[in-house]
Amino acid sequence: MTSEERRQGRYERRVARRAAQKARRVGLCDSFDWVFSFEHLYHSYKMCRRGVAWKSSVQKYITQAPLNVLNTYNRLHSGKFRTSGFFEFDLFERGKLRHIKSVTIGERVVQRCLCDYALVPMLSRTFIYDNGACMKDKGYTFASRRLTKHLHQYYRKHGNDGYVLLFDFSKFYDRVSHALVKKIVRKEFTDQRIIKLTDHFIDAFGDIGLGLGSQISQILALASANRLDHYLKERAGIKYYARYNDDGYMIHHSKEHLEKCLKAIKIICKRLGITLNAKKTQIIKLSRGFTFLKIRYFLLPSGKVIKKLAHKSIVRMRRKMKKYVPRLKAGIMDHKDVYQSWQSWRAYARNFNAYHTIRSMGQLYNRLFIFKPPSYG
Fold first, then answer.
1. Is the pLDDT of residue 160 over 80?
2. Considering Cα of 208, then 211, then 216, then 219, what sign does the dihedral take?
3. Cα 358 to Cα 307: distance, rounded to the nearest angstrom
4. 245 and 148 in contact (C-beta within 8 Å)?
């Protein structure tokens, strides 16, 4: 046996071993028949109706749910399933305009089934641990706690003398490359029916971008920037790095190294079709404090991490409570609605170092809504 034949044999054994490991990890997620079984579709329907069963369209679907799920099952397995289009509308969220492309309950069932039983288990296994958006047992709280842990770990090695690079993607979902996400799907899946259905959902958004309002957009958008995550973690050696959707940070003791990383980020983003937001991408000294995901972080010389509420969040809540007063008098709202809104914000604010802020907001609530009879004499 020649040396070339031995190398080829080792390569083939590695490929077979990796394929066996992948099969053990993902199970039947690459099988169209298993993913879109009637049991999985019906379970996806029950998940989709949560919190929206009051809508007339959902109630209409519920009245004949088993029959509707069966019809969907038959159309999927006969290759006749087609998207029914979008309900498009604009939504102002905290002063920011977002264009939403919502789908019908029947299509949401199919997308949920595709995501829960195929796309998420197959694609998420390639994600770094610190990619916490839209993942089970992760999310916003996970990202916040992970940054706090990174700051503590950094302090034990370098103190609070260092820098943080914050970056943000501009119109992340609107500019996702279809060719890129299709290539990622083809790399992970071999079942052509799953690939064809995924392509059908992607093409429904037009020539470029993934619309807000569809579950399939979340996992595919995260996967589109996965290459950047692996480069920064493995090639650039940034241990204290994480990304949450279109926001990311990296902590390092050398400003020059972060500047080199920023140049590499621009190159990789250009190849991936991602646009960096120049205003929100910056290098900040750790001792000055920085804002990530609407939270203000401070790493003190003692090593303590302080988390403060964003000033805009406080101002927004004070204005909201003052607007509740005329609505309460007009009968549009009742005391229960106002109290729930206040308690919801208070529970959120208690996750931060905001004792005096919560106390001040409580005093405002008492002054506006706790009516006391006047005292005489």
1. yes
2. positive
3. 14
4. no
Lookup: tokens for 49: 């109706």
**Residue 31 one-letter amino acid:** S
Contact 181, 173 (CB under 8 A): no
Q: What is the mean pLDDT of residues 23-28?
A: 70
Contact between 61 and 105 (Cβ < 8 Å): yes
* Interstrand relation of 163-168 and 282-285 (parallel, antiparallel or unpaired): antiparallel
163 vs 258: CA distance, rounded Å: 8
The span from the CA of 107 to the CA of 195, in Å, is 17
User: Whole-prediction pTM value?
Assistant: 0.84
DSSP state of 1: -
Task: Give the dihedral of Cα atoms 141, 144, 150, 152; nearest 10 deg.
Answer: -100
Q: 């069932």: which residue's tokens?
A: 109
Q: Phi, psi at residue 166, to the nearest 5°?
A: -105, 135
Length of the chain: 377
Q: Which pairs count as long-range contacts for 124-130, CB under 8 Å and 24+ apart, including other chains?
A: 124/219, 125/25, 125/26, 126/188, 126/223, 126/226, 127/222, 127/223, 127/226, 127/229, 128/226, 128/229, 128/230, 128/233, 130/229, 130/233, 130/241, 130/242, 130/243
The model's pLDDT over 195-205, given as tens digits with 9 standing for 90+, comes to 999 999 999 99
pLDDT by residue (tens digit) across 117-139? 999 999 988 899 998 887 888 88
Q: Round to whole Å and give the CA distance between 38 and 142.
A: 34
Say how far apart CA 248 and CA 166 lie, in whole Å.
6
Burial class for 278, CB neighbours closer than 10 Å (0-12, 13-18, 19+): exposed
Q: Is 371 exposed, middle or buried (0-12, 13-18, 19+ CB in 10 A)?
A: exposed
Contacts 24+ apart (CB under 8 A), 349-356: 349/309, 351/141, 351/144, 351/307, 352/295, 352/307, 352/308, 352/309, 353/306, 353/307, 353/308, 354/308, 354/309
Quick one: tokens of 320? 């909201």
